[in-house]
Amino acid sequence: MLVALFVALVGTAVLFALAALLHGLVGTAWDLSFCGLGAFLGTWLVNRRERTTFRENLGVATVIVFTTLAFISLGHAASQLVERHIAIDFEPLGKFIWATLVTSWWLIPLCALTLARLNRIGGPRAG
To answer: Is 36 exposed, middle or buried (0-12, 13-18, 19+ CB in 10 A)?
Structure first.
C-alpha cells in the first residue's frame, strides 16, 4: 500500500508540474484528484513486490499509466458536469488520447524504473 501511495503522490506531482509548464493541461482540481486516485488504484491492484527488475515492471507500469490517464479523463468529465455545468463531450477522450501520445512513452519506463527500485527496497512481502 505504501508503494501505491508513493506512486500516486509522485504521479500527481508530475501532473501538477506539467500543468505549470503547459497551461490548460489541468482544468480543475478534479483532474489532479482523479490522477492520484487512478495511480493509487492502478498500483495497488497490479504491483507485486516480487517484481524487482525494470523488465518485470514494464507491463505493470503500462497498466498503471493507462489507468491513471483514464482516471484523469474521468475527473475531467466530472468537472465538466459539476464545475462547468456543461454536458460531457469528446473533451475527456481527446485529453486521454493527447496524454497517451505525449506522455506514455516516457511515463511507462519511468514508472517501471520507480517500481523496480521501490520493490527492491521493500523486498518480498511476508506471506
So the answer is: buried
